[in-house]
Amino acid sequence: MNKLSIPAMRSYKSNPYLLAVMALSAIMLSFAPAFQQRPEPWPAPESAKKLKNPVPNNAENISIGKNLYAKHCRSCHGKTGEGDGTKAAELETFPGDFLTEEFQAQTDGEIYYKTTEGRKDMPEFKKKIASDEDRWILVHYLRTLKTG
Prior knowledge:
Elements: H1 6-9, H2 16-30, H3 32-35, H4 46-49, H5 59-72, H6 74-77, H7 101-104, H8 108-117, H9 132-143
Helix pairs in contact: 5-9, 8-9
């Protein structure tokens, strides 16, 4: 074996610089959502804040809401609603965390409005979830996604 080929044969284990770059890359990828832009404030109109959820909050509706969430929301917002879904890293802005006090402090009307109208990466769901009742049911389910 000639001496020129020996450095080329070094593994990443014997090259501290390569190992450091690989470790740093892995760490950065694990924090990808942290590098996304945080969404700008998204105030709902006063009229939306005052809307009351007309749908009963019961076990049957929570179950329906869970299925709606799995179909329409989980890919971006994640299984538990923390904004870590499989598509989250592809978005320009962080999709939001439903577990936060800030999210949970919104009125049902605000959440319904934002789900219905959408904004930027967040699609409008008035066509995807055409039933007003189902969007209200989804609001009830999102209320279950809080730390506690």
